[in-house]
Amino acid sequence: MLKIETSCLRVLAAMFVVFSFALPATQAARADMYSTLTEDTCWVTTATTDEALKAKKYREAIAGYTKAIDWTAKTCGQTLAAKNVFAKEELKKSHLGRAIAATGQGDYDLAVRDIALLLDAHFEGLWKIRPHMRALFNNDSMAQPAPAVFLDWTLGVVNKAIERNPKTSVYRAARADIYEKREDFQEALAERNAQVEYAQNNEDKARAYYDRAFTRYRIGDKEGRLADLSSGIGFDPEPEARRYADRAALYKQFGRIDEAIADYTKAMSDETAYRYKDYLKARADLYREYGKLDAAAKDFEKLVALNAKNADYLHGLLLVRTQQGDARQAKRLRAQIDKLKPDYLDNPERACELATAGPAPTGPAIPPATLRDVWSMGEVAALAPIQHLIGKPNATIDKAWDVMSNLVRAEQKAAGEPPRGLAQIPKFDGSKSDQLKQTIGFIFRQAKVAEAALEKKYGKRAAAVFAVSNAGYLAATLNGMGVPNVNVQLGKMIAADAPASGLPCGVWADTVAKIEGKAKPAEITKTWDTGRKRAREVLADPAPKPEKKSEAAPEKPNADAKNAAAETKPAKSTGLRECDDQDIALLLEGADPNTMPPCDP
């Protein structure tokens, strides 16, 4: 009985609230309705304020929308200041209405600050599907649902604010946001530079650097993004976990593994955080990948304790125990996974990964960019001599051979050996069979020389990546030519070097299986082509390519905006630089050697 009476009283109270605010208006926004019946029905409607806006009573409209915004923050606990994408639509509508009214009254500062909040909340998506919000403009030209209509209007307002006060960081941030949404990334970067320059306090500076880091991400500038993330963290008194996690991912890409692990550790400071387990797994994978198996085991054990039914966590721990040679624990974990997901370990790549699990690569971490270049060198070492064999030498590939020879020569010299480099590709003579034998023998010998130099320069893993790439490419090419004579030898070479390469089994295991199964040459070629594609995906640069290209070079981290124009001019060459391994990758991707920056091989 008490329950029913309480419920009735709450309904009556809510009806009183609605009735009270529905009385005829005698002052600004009196008929706007507010309801707090339950948490789910905490809402505001601004009908009277909307009419004041359409009647161009801007002062009344600003007062009404401000009241609605403040009431929502106090009563419902929602604001757009926290980048709340899921905030109530009426709250977003109130900010839009106030921005329109402020613009009409010439208060561009208030208008831009509301616009900035709407941009952060991705309001342009709501613009497409809510005609009643577009109707606030009371203008046919603004009734179109295309987001570009909204963005063009916001840019006009922001431009007027900047004309009056160009050194206001929030204005430049808003204009950068608009350019990013329009995918004008170079324009956005210029605005981010100004945002950084004009930021007044530590909070604004941290925000500016974080914002510019995101813009650099959009244009593929990883170095600049890392520098800006670090600057933002430096100014931020309480960096969010995701800031450390973002920087950790970049550190990993650059091979700075200890720093990546340290940042993932900082990101895990709050064990109740939503992504805590993601960060813990990322750290566990890093530990395992780089041979810190005891630490990896500890992290994976914690993950399993948090969720014992997650097959990925159990699999990670299984790999660690296998690498540690703990057969008893590995058997127990296999049984757990089989019971949880019977087909999980039947996945070919997981099965291969377990079958080849051994001691993790030792030595310094190697950046993915270096491994990409090393992979390209393996292909060059096979391709260049074959091009000469078939009587079609290629100037681009020959130049890549010379670049690789230069690297080998430098490593030989550093080791106190005669700096011979790679041998010049000879003219193969005799019968076709003799020429083929000479070519294959030449490739084997030179590949071993290059492999030894790469191991000295980068470590065992790089040498293994080179060896897998070279043998796989040679196998595919020879089989494509209908010459499977050395398949068995090449298959053994791939299988021997692949585990130390750290490459996924999907890159090489199927090719080895085809060779061992004496598959037809065409099948072997096709299988390696698939593995080669997978390798390039694995070693690919994770940063997205810019949507719109610019001739401007990336600006230096923390450069002053006033120097931006000068810094975007291409640097003039002061002489021939020494070619390096990155030139090989460019050449293999089809770059014209005549248009590349000159270098001395």
UniProtKB/TrEMBL annotation:
Q: Which SMART domains match?
A: TPR (SM00028)
Question: Which InterPro entries does the UniProt record give?
Answer: TPR-like_helical_dom_sf, TPR_rpt, Ycf3
Signal peptide, first to last residue: 1-24
User: Would I find Nucleotide-binding among this entry's keywords?
Assistant: no
Q: Where is the composition biased (Basic and acidic residues)?
A: 536-559
Q: Identify the keywords attached in UniProt to this record, alphabetized.
A: Repeat, Signal, TPR repeat
Give the region (Disordered) as residue ranges: 536-601
Name of this chain's protein? Uncharacterized protein
